[in-house]
Structure formats: structure tokens, C-alpha cells
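Homework help thread (please don't just give me the answer)

Our assignment gives two proteins as sequence + C-alpha cell strings and asks us to describe the second one. The first is just a warm-up. Here they are:
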Amino acid sequence: MGDLVARTGRHQQRYEDGYRLVAGCVPYRYTLADDTCNGNTKQRLEVLMITSQSGPRLVFPKGGWENDETVVEAARREALEEAGVRGEIKGKLGSWEFRSKSHRDECSPEGLCKADMFAMHVTEQLNSWPEQDARERKWLAISTALEQCRYDWMREVLNVCVSRYSVPPSSNSDVPISPNCSSELADLEQS
């Protein structure tokens, strides 16, 4: 594997109506869990959160959407750079607006951001990734992840993801994408 390097700087950032455009994802996986009530094992959903660069609080991978990439490519890139994971984007969870204290600049002096967030089924977790020295990653049960969400918009993103992907795929199949979501994702891949 070649050396992976995180993109830096804001010269290619996208802005719209005073908002910095951001792309991110909720990386998820299914793990086996013992069902002690009846002795069976079942799959449960876990999500990956990473420490913020500005402190120990946990966030989902996200960052600036740049001019030379689609929003889906930006979400994939941020997951790789910040969390060291690759996977399949399963669908757009929605768009959320928030104010960033750390990302104020001449194009968005108030730090306004609009984030397009996606669900990513993780297929590969790297041992080495661009921001590994600046961030820790943690796989969490949903209840713990909800407690770690510092902002309402993050809890909303997680709740949408859980509502769509909490049921694991059936044997040898993937999590189904609704017809609307499939065509929407194809459109996003080309924008």
C-alpha cells in the first residue's frame, strides 16, 4: 500500500450561501452478540467514532467537500483520512446545518457548515492511515454512541442510520437500499 496523505488547506473547498459544504459518514459494521435469554447468537450494529482534533470528544468522520470530487467521494475520503476505514456507501442519511467554532474563514466567517452525511458499511479497517497520530477510533454499541454525540444534529444522524441499518443483512446478501436511495446515490456519484 502506498503512503496515504490527508488533504489540507481550504483552497478547493466548496461554499454555498455562506455555508462551508461538508461530507461525512457513519461507518458501521455488524458483530456477533450472545443472546443470553435463549442461548442464540445474533448480529448487532456498531458504529465507528473518532476523537476530534480539538480534544477527546467523539465525532463521525467528516470534512470539507472539495471542488474536484463528488460528495460521495468526499465522504469516502474523509472516512479513510480520519478513521482509516474503507467501505460501501449505502445511502444518504440527510443534510444537517451546524456552526463550527474551529472552521471559520473568509468565506464563512460565522463558521456555518452544511453536512451531507452517509451510511458506510465498513469492509476494511487499515492499520495505518493519514490521521492516526491525531485521532483515535472506537467501535461503539449504539447506546454508547448516542451518549457520546455532543450535538443534537449528530444524534439525529445516528438515529437515521440506526433506523435504516439496525437489521443486519440476510445471509450472503447486502443491506438493501430502497429504490429511491439507489437512484439518489447514483445521482450523487455524478455530481
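The one we have to describe:
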Amino acid sequence: MNETSENEWMRIYNNSPGFNFTLSDSEELLLSNNNFKDSLGFNNSQQVKINDILDSGSMIYFRVHLKPLIELQEKANEIFLSFKTKEGKSLPVVLDAVRVCENDIVKIHFVGVGIPNRNEYESEIIQSRDKALKELLENTESVKLKKALNASDELIERQLQQIVEFKEQHKQMAKVLSHDLQEPLRKIGLFGSLMQNLDAEVKLNLSKILKSSERLRNLLISIQRLHAIDSENFKISNVDLNFLIENVRKKFLISNNQMITLEGEFFNFPADAIYLESLLIELVDNSLKFQRPDVPLKISVTTDYFMQNIFSETEDKFEYGKFVRIVYADNGIGFDKKYADKVFNLFEKLHLNDGLGIGLTYAKRIMTLHKGSISIASKRNIGTEITLLLPNF
């Protein structure tokens, strides 16, 4: 290139719009156009380095990210940097860069345009990005959390697969309970009832067979009923507890000597009315079975609101939610408190009677479906208190 051409090129370069400049590998400003110098307030006589004209945030970005990127890729596109103007303000510029080696001297050429109207916006984005990046790199807790979340995802997938398998088994078990086991018992009862002309001893033994058959049939019906509790048929609505209690009274024809008293403020709350009524029926049925001789049965039901940690099974995690608390109490024969954890187990019986040992298991299953809880406290010859907690959040 001759001297005239070079002068012409420099004239065009110096008068070009935008922001054009060249850096040495040591970050010294080797060349810049007039618009760049005028905007930032320096002249050719000054020795300027990049850290003199970049604001602090962009300088960190230049050293940590941009310069290594240019060295690696020999170029970079659409870079946002903020320069310090002669008025002391921040001027955001979008730039392209290319790295070249001329006569064994490494240079980085930049060309860009200023975007002053986006100054505050770009500054906030850069600061937020740098802050977020720094926190992410330094926050080891977030790394642990990510690993825990990945492990949780894998656990959830395994549990979903188990649920699919369980549902299929559930369908097959329902068929067995509703037909395959019921039909032989029905035939035993039918043919046993046809055997009339028998001597007394045979009749006695036959009656025992029929009684055992009937008990087994009732047991299967109860298991089928427990097995049939299904979330797909679960319907939440606003429930009036007074209405449910009246339905229970009518079912048992409870007399004035065996009253259910309602105490406290009764309010509507979300629940499945059919399942909740079934639960109350089980509780009253238990109270009637286990009432004290010659002592009129008294049942009280109270309600209020109760705050409790919703993460009852998760260690070191707390979030309190509002629950509806229903306390059901009777003055029956009760039991020792050491058995309190066993009464909800299937077929667990604490008393010698004709009960099947399923009622409280059924009640617990209904509360689980409500994402609630059931607990029991009892004293022998004083009575039993059962607490239901239903989520109201």
C-alpha cells in the first residue's frame, strides 16, 4: 500500500462512524477512530490501556471471559461492553472482534456501535449476569441441591413404574375379591341351608360351618371395600359436618341415651363427603361395639383449625399449613396406650369380640387419600379420642 492510499485509508478510518479501535496483546490501545476518542475523552498523545476506558464490570468480563474466548476462537461477535465517557457516564457498545498476528505482533481489532439508550438496561443485565455466575460457581449448596433433585427424579420414575404395576395388580385383586373368593362361600352357604333333616349334633356342627362361612364372607366384603378405596373416585367438595353427623345418627338410630354431641364452631371444609361419612360410620360402629356395660354411650365431636408442618415425613423441612381438626371422643372401654400404634394395622384386634379388625385401617386409608392424618389416644375404662387432620390450604 503506497503512502497516499494509506493516508486515505486512515482518513476513512478516523472519520468512520461507530467505535473502532485496536488493542495490543498487552491490552494497550494502538489505534482508534475519532468518534471513539471523542466519546471517551482522550487524544493520541495519551497512552491508554483497556482498563482505563472500560467500567469495572466490563473489565472483569473482558479479562475473565472475552479475551480468553478471542484467543481461543480468533474472533468474537456481538459482544456487549460498557465504556467510561468523558462525562463520567457509562456508554454500552456492541462489538465484533478479530485477533490477528502482523509482523509477529498480536493485535485485536474491534468494530462496534454505541447503544446509549440501553445504558441502564444493559448495565443491570451485565451486573445481574456476573453476580448470578459468581454465586452459581461459589454456591456449593446449589450443586448439592441439583444432585438431590436428580436423585429425586430417578426415585419418582421408579415409584411411577411401581404404581403402574400396582394398579394392574389392584385390578386383578378386585376380580378375585368380588368373584373368585365370594362364589365358593356363596355355594357353601346355599348348600348348607338345604341340609335340613339332620340330627342335632350334625346340625350344631353345620351351624358352626355356616357361621364361619358367613364370617369369612363378611371379611372378604370388608377387604373388598378397603381395596375399593380409589383416588379416581375421590371427589372434593364443601362438606357440612352437621349434615354428615345427622346421616350417621339415622343409620344407627342412636337414642337419647346414646347421643352424639357436637361442640364448638362447625364450618364447611373441603373433603370427600361420601368417604368422610363412611369414616364416621366406622368410628361410631367401634364405639357401639366397645361401650362399657351399664354405662350410657356418649360421643362428642369437636372441630377447629390447626397449624401443622405439612412435611411430616421429611427431615429438616418446614412449611406450616392450615388444617381442619376433627376430634372424635367416646366414653367406651378404651385400651392401654401401648397399643395406640397397632390399632390401625389390618386385622389388629385388641378385644375378643366379633369385630373383623379392619375398621380403623379403613379410616386411615380414607385420611391418607385426603392427604391428612389420623391419630388415637385411649385410656382403659375411660374412653378413646381420635383426631383427624384434613388439609385446608
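TA reply:
I won't write it for you, but here's a hint about the kind of observation we're looking for: The mean pLDDT is 79.
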